[in-house]
Specification:
- The structure is a single chain.
- This protein is an alpha+beta fold and about 325 residues long.
- It has helices at about 1-20, 70-95, 100-130, 140-165, 170-195, and strands spanning about 25-40, 45-50, 60, 65-70, 200, 205-210, 220, 225-240, 255-260, 265-275, 280-285, 290, 295-300, 315-320.
- The two termini are about 40 Å apart.
Length: about 325
């Protein structure tokens, strides 16, 4: 009797151990929360003058975020405005006739324009030589070239005004002067638009996640000064082996556990694609003749979850 009980207990113990060792453990996958980010930058280089936000601030769309100081552009606007006044004077000279005093005045303006052109030419040659040797930046070279172009345009306009004062106006000249005035007005509008771009506004609402530069620092062209994050556009990201992809079909709804919030949230699979890095390959068990790749899987919340934050861990338990 005792012997039979002992054998029965031994059989049960051995069976339990075999079941425990052969049963498949649930697979737990870990991912993290990501959110949409926006980088605010300017196409105008310069010195950062003002930053109106700091980390954690909520920013509304079209709100002023920062301003860049660009005295070079302001100088160019002054120069273009001078050219525009000269073009207007040219039109007035043609329409109003010529007097001796006007001839003398136009000649004086032409002489000053030629002197400015000669100075701009010398400056351009010096800066170009230094730029070729790597002693000044390409931006300084471009600025010197722009100054030369403005000086050339000013000299040409002053010369035309003087010639018209001497010879009187013709219909072709009237058309040319009007076209020149339209060109200068267009150039002025372009410079004003560039100056407007020194004031950067938020193109989307969000929360300031980082301020990369501080007032007084130089801002390269296109460099992101302020970064915004939109918590309402968040998603979960997993790196999944391809042998587990059958659990992540697009449109499938799954429940993910968020430890930071201590609750489960429903997500929907919206995207999956192979990761392009060869480091994502993983060898299968010995004796099998292929490797498994890792796929990136993106899941979006079924309902908006305002408490989700980038970097939070999310867990998915796959059944045994």
């Amino acid at each position: 009797m005792k012997r039979g009980v002992i054998i029965l207990v031994a059989v049960l113990v051995v069976g339990f151990l075999l079941w425990f060792s052969l049963r498949s453990e649930p697979v737990v996958l870990q991912g993290q929360i990501e959110a949409q980010q926006y980088m605010l930058s300017s196409k105008i280089p310069g010195r950062l003058a003002e930053v109106h936000v700091q980390r954690g601030d909520k920013v509304k769309k079209d709100q002023l975020v920062f301003r860049i100081d660009s005295p070079e552009l302001e100088s160019k606007l002054t120069q273009v405005a001078a050219i525009d006044r000269m073009a207007l004077s040219l039109v007035q000279a043609i329409e109003g006739g010529t007097r001796e005093e006007r001839v003398a005045a136009t000649k004086s303006e032409w002489e000053k324009a030629k002197a400015a052109q000669a100075l701009a030419q010398k400056s351009w040659e010096r800066v170009k030589s230094l730029a070729d040797e790597g002693l000044v930046s390409a931006q300084s070279r471009d600025e010197a070239w722009t100054m030369l172009q403005v000086a050339d345009r000013t000299e040409e306009t002053a010369h035309e005004i003087h010639k018209l004062a001497l010879a009187g106006a013709r219909d072709e000249t009237r058309d040319a002067t009007k076209a020149s005035q339209e060109a200068t007005e267009s150039l002025m509008a372009e410079v004003r638009n560039l100056l407007e771009d020194t004031r950067v506004f938020a193109h989307h609402e969000g929360v300031v996640s980082d301020v990369m530069l501080q007032p007084g620092e130089l801002v390269p062209q296109g460099f992101p000064v302020v970064m915004l994050v939109d918590f309402e556009q968040s998603w979960a990201l997993f790196n999944v082996r391809e042998d587990l992809l059958q659990h992540f079909v697009e449109g499938t709804e799954v429940s993910l556990h968020v430890p930071a919030l201590k609750k489960d949230i429903a997500f929907t699979v919206v995207y999956r694609a192979a990761m392009g890095d060869y480091a994502t390959w993983r060898a299968t068990a010995p004796g099998q003749d292929f490797d498994m790749r890792t796929f990136e899987v993106e899941l979006r919340p079924v309902a908006p979850e305002p408490e989700l934050r980038p970097g939070m861990s999310v867990l998915l338990t796959l059944g045994s």
